[in-house]
Amino acid sequence: MYAAGAAVLSYDKHHMLPAFESKLKPGATLTLIFEPSGIWGVAICKDMDFTPLSRQYGEAGAGLMLVPAWDFGWDRALHGHMAVMRGVESGFSIVRVAKRGYLTVSDDRGRILAESRSDSAPFSTLIAVVPVIHDTTLYLLLGDWFAWLVLAMFGFTLVQLYRLRENLHKRRVLDAKVN
Predict the structure, then answer these.
(1) Which residues contact 94 (CB under 8 A, 6 or more apart)?
(2) Residues 167 and 118 in one domain
(3) Are 58 and 140 in contact (CB under 8 A)?
(4) Mean pLDDT value of segment 60-72
(5) What's the average model confidence in pLDDT over 31-57?
(6) Of 11, 92, 14, which Cα lies nearest the Cα of 59?
(7) CA 54-115-4 angle, 5° bins
(8) Within a domain: 127
(9) Which end of the chain, N or C, is more open, meaning fewer C-beta atoms within 10 Å of its C-beta?
(10) Cα-only R_g, the chain
(11) Beta bridge mates, 102
(12) Which tens digit of pLDDT belongs to each residue from 106-165?
């Protein structure tokens, strides 16, 4: 990151794309920029697919994430909007600029403030006002409890379905013996 009158900041991507970046050493630190508008964070592409890293930025108080990326075209909507979800979970706005994807600006509530395909013109630009506001979310406070609850309920449902199936089978066997 380059800014007038400030030291150059660097960020090393944490989550490598297996087929293309396996030989690279993953990063292990956050890059935070302290601006008058608030705290900005930096992540690269696939890093925004993982909740633990975005949660760390949320816990650090980031109000805005800057995310350069390179999509494959066919995954542009999925990959780009997954990053929007990380902003909702961890309470920050996102500016994501993806080659072969979307230029996307979203707020901490997941509202798309501006969006354009990066290949919509020979040189694409997008201008938007971005709120730099950090919100403490339930996800930041309580973590993955909802996902674990859903998995527990799914397991409970499977056990109940198995029991129901066994009971129906026993009832059919008894009915066959009586008739």
Answers:
(1) 48, 64, 65, 67, 83, 84, 86, 87, 104, 105, 106
(2) no
(3) yes
(4) 94
(5) 93
(6) 92
(7) 65
(8) yes
(9) C
(10) 23
(11) 117
(12) 999 999 999 998 888 888 889 999 999 999 998 999 888 888 899 999 999 999 999 999
Q: Is 16 helix (H, G, I), strand (E, B) or coil?
A: coil
- Indicate whether 61 and 148 sit together in one domain: no
What is the residue type of 20? F
DSSP element (H, E) containing 89: helix 76-90
Shared-domain flag, residues 117 and 162: no
In the block, residue with structure tokens 């956050």: 30
Range of the domain at 159: 144-179
Contacts made by residues 150-157, CB under 8 angstroms, sequence distance 24+: none
- Domain assignment present for residue 68? The answer is yes
CB distance 34 to 67 below 8 Å: no
Average pLDDT of span 41-57: 93
**Is residue 6 one of the residues assigned to a domain?**
no
Pairing of strands 38-42, 64-70: parallel
What is the number of domains present in the chain? 2
φ, ψ of residue 22 to 5 degrees: the values are -60, -30
Q: How far apart are the C-alpha atoms of 6 and 178, rounded to whole Å?
A: 87
